Input
Amino acid sequence: MSSAVAQTRAFSTSAIAQEISPQAETPVILSNATHTIADLKEYFVPGEITKITDQLIIKAVVVANDEHGNFYKKIVLQDETGGIVFLLDRHDLFTTFEEGREISIGAKGLYISDYSGTIQVGGAPTIDKKGNPRLGQLDDRLIADHLFHGKQVGLPKANEVTIVELGPSDISTLVKLCGVQFSPNDTTGTLADAAAQQTISKTLVDCNANEIFLRTSGYAEVATVSVPDGSGCVTAIYGVYQDKKQLHIRTGLDLSLSEARCEIDASAALASTATPASLVPVISLKEDFSSNENYEPVAAPNWLNTTNVSKGRTWQAREYNGNVYAQATAYKDDAPKVDAWLVTPKINFSEGLQISFRTATAFNAHQGLEVLVSTDYKGSGDPSTATWTPLKGVELANATSGNNNWVPSRNVSLASYKGEGFVAFRYTGSSAGKASTFRVDDVVISKS
Ligand SMILES: [Ca+2]
Output
């Protein structure tokens, strides 16, 4: 027997002993940690579900669990190098994995992947309802083989940071943001929709107009709590959803927003929206919108989904037969008009590129979709103030395409454009007579 195998066996035996008395205050120390959470994250390969075949032993502390309903079948573990989410197929995890409890992790045999940018560890892959492989929750019977009870060491101190400072190393760790308040549009209602059991995003904003979402589950105890309208500090687990920063609180105690609100600096707001996440031009891209959730606003890395209409509609992700696409429509819209822009990441046109995508229409009453190119748009702010010209030679869904039929655009050359710029899918319409639905999917930019 090799020493590695012997070590693994010893590890498992101790694990069983631990599981019998999981609340033991003087636990057997299984083994010294050999790795950190940062090391564990090194095994993550973007777009893949990777099995960890090395034995890594990591010590970390539970910073969030399912006790108060805002986390479900998952715990969040943190060490001095970072944090990570564990998906575990068990209810009432908090009875074993209390906040502040040190846990030894035997990572061999676990799987690592991500959910829209937030790295997670779990069990063998499963197939989601769209037919795509997805990281599974670790089977209840296997939890004791991988997670071992240690001492109650207490929660680590939340790292006090600003919205702007939050970065990759803060993901899945306990952070504290001060000088924040809910956005003026979001100070009514409750933190989530308990009646419909729906997760809600509320926007937190600092005095310089930097924003972050607070996501709260409809199952959370705090779902029925009225949104506080004061200013103060929020302690929460930080995460990302694609390029969006977001927070999950554990209980109502994580919100301390009773001070007077600050005046949000509008000029700082302009400055902050003028600095998008990335303006590094791309020479290829592929977007099938598959990571978007049905009925959520379309979001894809470095894409812009915007409108210049106050409270106007933008492009929405919709799902049909397991396929997710971008859709815009003015059907039953309350606002006077829809002017929705879905803008690609910045493109370097000097490379001799081509673009292809497909479009569809339904309830066609007007040609509400245009595909436009700009080389003077700045990448943020109202796109309609830039110069846009229609993309030539493109085939778009129209009144003769029939309902719901996907129309290939053809491979359209972008060679006539110079320098850098953007392609935009612009939908315009109004509920009064111009309410056609248009859809876009499978946008590919590549060398021709
Ligand atoms: Ca798609």
